[in-house]
Design a protein that fits this description.
Radius of gyration: 24 Å
CATH class of the largest domain: Mainly Beta
Strand content: 15-25%
Number of helices: 17
Bound molecules: ligand BES, zinc ion
């Protein structure tokens, strides 16, 4: 189960010869594209806003284009000017359309004379969907306020007016001013020794899509973890984080060995407050990560392998449209597995692959047919089914299948050449397939038919005979679980003393949707799952204990939900509560207290759970 924002996909892709059009953006890349962004921002904590000037360098494609159309959401525009080659400015007329709920407000700037640059003076809203502002009390060290962005999928537009489509890439530089003693970081090269003088400059020399624009600011300390990596976190968190992520350099070297040089310079990590809505976000040069993966035993660092892997699959070769997102997430989940295998062994990599495959088997049948496809038909994709487990779990399963059929050596060579071939480009599924056919499928005939490939990419469900790794340890857990559920093995006799995190996740994942109360109580009496410091285990435990009607876990579940804003760990617990009227009332009371600490995306997701629970049953 993965909780990701959903997107409405409305239109068909344009022919591949022109830049792919993205139905979730108003941008018209066939008319004009932004090639460089120059940001000048002031971080205003008391007003929870960024005050800024965004200067966009333009490449006009159509000589007749009358206007530059940008994406915005809840921005206050003060003025817009054309800037000529000599730096002279002239005011431009513009219209800001009423906001669309999904897409925000289309900004149309009249520019028939095709200026080389356009300069927009603006401010963000305190409720910007892509920013979270935390007062000192909501940080770990409680000394200073904190703010951070989360732009993927379509939230960059809530803090910068731009062409918010993954098909369009631009370089950027930025000047950011902040209160003294605050450190500012961005998705660009960061200097650990930068003085905290309130005056920061950044440069991202590589062309990136808008969803990789990122900024954060707060009481942030730094600790080196390798020659080109460091951990950034609040002072009280930074030591534990550096220990947990001590393998970062080894991860980079592993990925480089497989797929060629790391091209971004540094790979730093920023650990955010627990309200960060995701596990990790692959912002270039500076992955943003949840503190919930700091558990003391490195058992959840595959999130870091994953975000690092995006430095090839996603940031270097980018899905041109949200409909193609499996090119980012499926490829990355595959590469993540390869890093895990090289660093922590095949047993663990196979366990993680099985966890992902079994979760998909459980969820895919409940999805609408189109959502079961790796590359869904953009026509008729509902607002709720564009991004899901399919992109991650079916996508990575497809690549593991290719690896198995063609052999690791051939597949590794192929994947490396794919990253080289499409480096710094945004591509569609069709472009990926057009490269796959001659360079792998037809190069080694007889191993996999084109029909099989089509079935993986365009079919529903999971192709027959999709290969799964063996895991004797998971097999043993399946047996133990069955015996426990059948009543023939008491919880105290489970051979769980040495189960690792993934093995507990697997045991809990495959409990019945509504387990027996007595069995859940027994489990907790021996294994003390309530209050576990490992939130991956905790989430699964609370969901099943609540479903079983075990009210004794409610306060600990409430503590988990209040402390953690990561969607994937919190929303399922709300859903478990929402299944009974009394549980729903309790969850609503928890939310009333937790809400002010939640990210806008978490608020939206929890409120959607409540709305669904209150809606008359069909
Ligand atoms: N890029 C994603 C996060 C994302 C996807 C944000 C879509 C918004 C829209 C990131 O790389 C990711 O997949 N994070 C996972 C990590 C996990 C799969 C190891 C997460 O946050 O749980
Ligand atoms: Zn990812």
């Amino acid at each position: 189960m993965r909780v990701l924002p959903t997107l409405a996909l409305g239109a068909l892709l344009l022919p591949l010869s022109v830049l792919a059009s993205e139905p979730n953006s108003y941008a018209q890349p066939d008319q004009v594209v932004v090639t460089h962004l120059d940001l000048d921002l002031k971080i205003d904590f008391p007003h929870r806003q960024l005050d800024g000037v965004a200067t966009l360098k333009l490449d006009w494609k159509n000589p007749q284009a009358p206007a530059l159309v940008l994406d915005t959401r809840d921005l206050k525009i003060a003025s817009i000017d054309a800037v000529d080659a000599k730096g002279r400015t002239r005011a431009l007329k513009y219209t800001l359309a009423p906001a669309d709920k999904e897409l925000g407000s289309k900004l149309t700037i009249e520019a028939p004379k095709h200026p080389v640059q356009v300069r927009i003076t603006y401010a963000t809203s305190p409720d910007a969907s892509g920013l979270q502002w935390l007062p000192p009390a909501q940080t770990a060290d409680k000394r200073a306020p904190f703010m951070f962005s989360q732009s993927e999928s379509i939230h960059a537009r809530s803090w910068v007016p731009l062409q918010d489509s993954p098909a369009i890439r631009f370089t950027y530089d930025a000047h950011v001013s902040a209160p003294k003693d605050i450190r500012v970081v961005m998705s660009a090269l960061n200097d650990a020794r930068h003085p905290l003088d309130g005056d920061f400059r950044f440069d991202q020399p590589h062309p990136i899509p808008s969803y990789l624009l990122a900024i954060a600011a707060g009481d942030i300390a730094v600790k080196e973890t390798g020659p080109r990596s460091a951990v950034y976190a609040e002072p009280s968190v930074v030591e534990a984080a550096a220990r947990e992520f001590a393998d970062t350099e080894k991860m980079i070297e592993t990925a480089e060995h497989l797929y060629g040089p790391y091209r971004w310079g540094r790979y730093d990590l920023l650990v955010l407050p627990p309200s960060f809505p995701y596990g990790g976000m692959e912002n270039p040069d500076m992955t943003f990560a949840t503190p919930t993966i700091i558990v003391g035993d490195k058992s959840l660092v595959s999130v870091i392998s994953h975000e690092l892997a995006h430095s090839w699959s996603g940031n270097l070769v980018t899905a041109a449209s949200w409909r193609d997102i499996w090119l980012n997430e499926g490829f990355t989940t595959y590469v993540q597995g390869r890093i895990t295998e090289a660093l922590y062994g095949k047993t663990l990599a196979d366990e993680e692959a099985l966890l992902s495959a079994r979760a998909l088997e459980k969820s895919i049948g409940r999805m609408p047919a189109n959502a079961q496809k790796l590359a869904p038909d953009p026509r008729g994709v509902g607002a709720d089914d564009a991004l899901s487990d399919v992109a991650y779990d079916k996508g990575s399963w497809f690549l593991r299948t290719l690896e198995q059929k063609f052999g690791r050596e051939h597949f590794d060579t192929y994947l490396k050449s794919y990253f080289d071939h499409f480096a710094w480009h945004s591509i569609t599924t069709e472009q990926m397939l057009a490269y796959l056919k001659p360079n792998l499928i037809e190069k080694y005939p007889g191993r996999m038919s084109w029909d099989e490939v089509q079935d993986w990419v365009h079919g529903t469900g999971i192709p027959k005979n999709a290969p799964l790794p063996d895991s004797p340890r998971f097999d043993a857990i399946d047996k133990e679980r069955s015996a426990f559920l059948a009543g023939s093995l008491p919880a105290a006799k489970l051979d769980a003393k040495d189960w690792n995190t993934q093995e507990w996740m697997y045991f809990l994942d495959r409990l019945p949707d509504v387990p027996k109360l007595g069995q859940m109580q027994q489990l907790d009496a021996t294994w003390h799952l309530t209050g576990t410091p490992n939130a991956e285990i905790g989430m699964r435990w609370y969901v099943h204990a609540i479903a079983a009607g075990d009210k004794a876990v409610w306060p600990a579940a409430a503590e988990h939900m209040t402390r953690i804003g990561r969607l994937y760990l919190t929303v399922p617990v709300y859903k478990a509560f929402a299944r009974t009227p009394q549980g729903l009332a309790y969850a609503e009371a928890v939310y009333a207290k937790a809400r002010s600490g939640y990210h806008p995306l978490t608020r939206q997701a929890v409120e959607a759970v409540f709305a669904a629970a209150h809606a008359p049953k069909k």
